[in-house]
Predict the 3D structure of the following.
Amino acid sequence: MPRDSEDRSFRYPLKWRIMDGLNAALDLLWPRRLGRYTGWALLTPALLLVGILVLGLFQIAENSLHTLDTSTFLPGEEYTLANYRIIAESPTYWRIVWRSLLGAGLTVFFTLLLALPYSYIMVRTNKAALRKTLLIVLFLPFFIGQVVRAYGILIVMGSSGAVNDALGLVGIEPIRLLFNFPAVVFGLVQYMLPFAVLMLAPALTAIPRETETAASSLGANWVKVFRHVILPMAKPGLVGAALVVGTLSLTDFAMPAMLGGGSQDFIANAIYDQFFRTADQGLGSALALLLVALGSVIAGVVIAFFGAGTLGMRGRK
Amino acid sequence: MISRSQRVIFWCLVWFCIVILSVPTIIVVGASLTGGNIITFPPDGFSLKWYRQIALARDLQQAFSRSIIVSLICLAVSLPVGTLAGIALTRFRLRFANAIQIYLLLPFTIPLIGSGIGMMLVFGSWHILGNIWPVGVALAVINLPFIIWSVSSSAAALDSDLELAAASCGAGRFETFLHVTLPGVMPGVITGGLLMFVLAMTEFLVSLLLTDARTVTLPVQIYNNIRSIITPDLAAVSSVFVLIALLAVWLLDRLVGLEIFLKSK
């Protein structure tokens, strides 16, 4: 009886059996009664991964409390606040902090000044092709990476670069455009522009076109429409963009290092130098912790003033 | 509708943006095609010799393959971790959900130099510094919010009744996850994975802190070479990054459409 033997050899498809096995394994490893903790179980790897950062902060804090023993070039044993005292009493570090804050402030101002019309045109245009082009122009640098972008700026603004060539055509002598403070700010603005536009655009999309029409039909010119309608309604987006641009440029390393030519250090560059040039880990750690604190204080103040809604704008939502 | 003065002022500013965003890239690509030995613009004749040169340069080749390995490790770590976390944050009701969200945003709120130095110290005390794989893990950590964000926005759009329906049709928990939840969040997983890979390819500061001469990745190698001398072979390497970026933008547009980034929440 061939039929009988077929019955005896009948088995569920392999895929089903694997699934059943996996389900059984899951039931064994994570019984259903643990269901209310499933969310936490799924979250644990991410919490642990980010935990490395928290661990790193503790390690930095620990290191910052030991001074470098100049006789052995090893961190000293005893706990001391000497590193923080050195920073507080050093005019060099105050100058670097001041330069970083000024650079970040200028970057926020210029970036928003450029990002606002860019996102406005991109959101409001009726031409799909124009919108797509503007988006591609924005995303391309975002994916190219900071070093290559800074390299591009180095070539364009160099003493024999395109900008000086163009100036030469109208009879202006070549000028030194690089390795000064404005060059760093320019690099930061160029670097931050995509971030700012991507955070502003959703906020502008949320403003109905009709509110503008209504304002102008009541006699407001476009400057007034912008001041009294667009800017107040886009405030969460503007504040969020300013916060992200401000903190990212305050803590930037590559632009001051590459476009500043060593004379325009920001805080991050000072930290790097302490670790890799002077090998004073304690002082570098103290600086790093102060930078983290400075960034958090700025973010905290901005959020306290403008509400936690700006935090929801983070992560390019 | 839009008045004349507004149009003139806005378009001037927009054109300025387009120029500063695109011209450096275009000139880098142009400079890589020069026939001369120094970078000039316009290029001194057309030649692919610098591409031949970088194809033969051992240090650049090794740095490039290291970058690929680092990005793949970053992907291998962040894809499962970020996907599970994204699902957990949207599909499960958790206590302290707000605190968790703030905690998971730490990689964005802690300055990169702080994260990099911190991980350098931690990895140093674990005696794993000097390998390539910790760099991949570190890049997964600092960009984790990107993939969590992209998976959660996919998961939020998924109807939770589908999972119940699958269960009532006899699917076990594993099958429900594999055949219903995972395909539902797949667009977010792919977008997030793309972001993670490309951002790991181009990441600079954390890689600079965690690598040494034997484990240097391509962006760090470019940075080191720029410091000494600017030659057209660097422009050729940079053009490789431009190509990667073009590919990434094209893929992103095909997968989710760039317009999604304009939508308000």
